[in-house]
Write a structure and sequence with these properties.
The chain is about 45% helix and about 20% strand. It has about 160 residues and is of the alpha+beta class.
Amino acid sequence: MEFFANLNGISPWWWVAFGIALGAVEMMTMSFFLIWPGLAALLLAVLLALVPGLGGEAQIAIYAGLAMALTFLGRSLMHRYGNDDGTASSLNSRANLMIGRHAEVQEFTGPEGAVVIDGVRWHAIWPEGATATPGSMVEINGANGMSLLVAPEKG
């Protein structure tokens, strides 16, 4: 238990340095994981400044508890209020990346056909009752698997 004895009487600045080091590693990795243990170290530094006689076992126990609590709380808050700009939803779906683009109708039979975007042929599904002629332009307004949902171009 020599490790815990070394923590007795330690300066709060060591915990500040540890928190800053974790923050620096977080900036290099961009994992959004090490920020929470880093904040726990900074909070422990404040606590240690207020209660300077805190033993080594207590410091480690408080740090572990703070790190776990902040990690769960932080991840929960990021999941709830995080920036969801839709980039992750289209990461593995090329069809979703086509939404909002315009395509040229290649062929049209019933509710299905084919369109061309940037020289690539795509299976397309038209809304019920819509018509299209080869060579006309349509707008991509959705995707269903690898099929594009198209509508007549506006304007």
